[in-house]
Amino acid sequence: MPATSAVRVLRAAGVAFEPLFYEYVERGGTRHSAEALGVPEHEVVKTLVMEARRGGPPEPLLILMHGDREVSTKRLARQIGAREIAPASPAAVEKHTGYVPGGVSPFGTRKTLPVHVERSILALPRVLVNGGRRGFLVALEPAAFTRVLAAIPVDVAIVP
Fold first, then answer.
1. Is the dihedral angle over the CA atoms 48, 104, 64, 66 positive or is it negative?
2. Cα(132)–Cα(138) distance, rounded to whole angstroms?
3. What gap in Å lies between CA 74 and CA 63, rounded to an integer?
4. Per-residue pLDDT reduced to its tens digit, 78-136
5. In 10 A of CB 48, how many CB atoms?
6. How many CA atoms within 13 Å lie on the side-chain side of 152?
7. CB neighbourhood size of 148 (10 A)
8. Where are the beta strands (DSSP E) in 68-147?
9. Distance between CA atoms of residues 21 and 6, nearest Å
10. What is the number of helices (H) and of strands (E) in the chain?
11. How much is the average pLDDT of 16-34?
């Protein structure tokens, strides 16, 4: 098992998880990982790094979303009181999280970032989320997002 920051945080917090590996494909996204692992894409949670603009410098945050859904940045901005929300650049993703795009876990980020989770994710019995490396997911109960990360539930999913 890779000794990623995410794995260290999960172990330290006593979170039960199952490591899962698949062959990473550039731009394959959650559709590829779900197919490779034989699970519904809805249960694969993507970790998106966004930046909120409130008038000062951009403020990084994470949003956890179902693999088969997209984020309404307008609704997210409204729900968190920001003027605008936009995806972070690949360089900003690495700077804020310490992870490379395609291998971003919400656990073990370089900086402690606010985490928002699509509310319906919390109703699932089990989800798969990146374990801190490309081609490596961990299966766990979504309650870990609120217990370990203090993730704030939001309603911002849209069907593409």
1. positive
2. 9
3. 13
4. 999 999 999 999 999 999 999 999 999 999 999 999 999 999 999 999 999 999 999 99
5. 20
6. 11
7. 18
8. 70-71, 84-87, 115-118, 127-133, 136-140
9. 15
10. 5, 10
11. 95
